[in-house]
């Protein structure tokens, strides 16, 4: 493995600034790494080698000409395949969009390009972001680099696996119910869900429009903060975008001082059903924050226990509406021969062939919840529960600055272990879902390895709306304190991934 692929984004920028390495050299090293290991990991759906090298060469030329460049200019990145990129295949992990090349860039992608970040390619994901393991992708399962027999999390398992396999130093994910944070926890990487509306959804293929949030993924807190700053900010193309300054996330990540910070441990997120090794690492991290000067108390959020059922009514309802556009009439897959003269038949055949089982399950559930006679009983009630959860957060933040919990109840489980049990699969997101229902900011930071299986554990931090910098304050403090015993970030403890080609 090239030394360049082991570097953080900050370290790579220092090498380019000092003239010790070029963006082309760094990009090529990561493309070589992808070629060497991705047959085993399967993090990428499309690798844009030619485009990435062209972007890198353009950055090198600007640097040679003395142009002022951003802090991530020339650094490679893996992009979740749910964000449109002009002229590059974008599938959202679904056969129904196979071969589609968007005619425009998502706002997040525009901002990545404006920052000079080199996009290596598109990463694998659960189809239309519906899943917690990346087993629902129409293009095969992504594997966890810590143990190739285990899942990397979902829906953004491709982005997190690319980081953990050293195929990219940065990645972009989207978080609807934990799809950035849960994969981050399972792969020992950093995953951040910004405040809803803090990053633009324009050009994001929608799953649930009131929940979806693009965000940064990285191997260090500072790298994630720099990427967060690059993609965040108001966008008039997104009606839910917040017209406020981006929180001072980079400053917080550089400072990392939790002295006097009030930290609330959520009583309802722990106990029965949580893996002992996960709870042990979580409580050790809480003790560490106390030693660093934080004030820790227990906080009750009594309605969090209803978050999972409420979410799985709200999300399918919005998904049913959003996915109605995939009707075989305008773009994407179209099934049917010349003998079929009914648009309805073509639509039925196409959706039957193009959508996977989990997508069909959620469309049917959502359509039922929105149907006449059931709307008030299901969707309406779920929205009332959502309000109660938002009130729980509001009450908690009157007592503390941030809330914390394990990011996931368990470590990464074996591939196929929960594929036939949707309820068990949905429970992966017990800790992450409440934040999406409230619109708050949250992140998962590595906090060690579970004793039972030597797999990564994530420490979940939740912050009020547009107080995203508090996430990085806690993450940086924790990372710095743990680095001494780990010999660096947690990824330094990962087994060397075998090169298969």
TrEMBL record:
Gene Ontology terms, MF aspect: ATP binding; glutaminyl-tRNA synthase (glutamine-hydrolyzing) activity; transferase activity
Gene3D superfamilies with a match to the protein in the record: Amidase signature (AS) domain
Entry EC number(s): 6.3.5.7
Domain of life: Bacteria
Domain Amidase: 25-471
GO cellular component annotations of the record: glutamyl-tRNA(Gln) amidotransferase complex
Keyword entries, A-Z: ATP-binding, Ligase, Nucleotide-binding, Protein biosynthesis, Transferase
Reaction it catalyzes: L-glutamyl-tRNA(Gln) + L-glutamine + ATP + H2O = L-glutaminyl-tRNA(Gln) + L-glutamate + ADP + phosphate + H(+)
InterPro entries: Amidase (IPR000120), Amidase_CS (IPR020556), Amidase_dom (IPR023631), AS_sf (IPR036928), GatA (IPR004412)
Record-annotated active site: 80, 155, 179
Function comment: Allows the formation of correctly charged Gln-tRNA(Gln) through the transamidation of misacylated Glu-tRNA(Gln) in organisms which lack glutaminyl-tRNA synthetase. The reaction takes place in the presence of glutamine and ATP through an activated gamma-phospho-Glu-tRNA(Gln).
Assembly and interaction partners: Heterotrimer of A, B and C subunits.
Family, per entry: Belongs to the amidase family. GatA subfamily.
Name of this chain's protein: Glutamyl-tRNA(Gln) amidotransferase subunit A
Species this protein is from: Kribbella antiqua
Gene: gatA
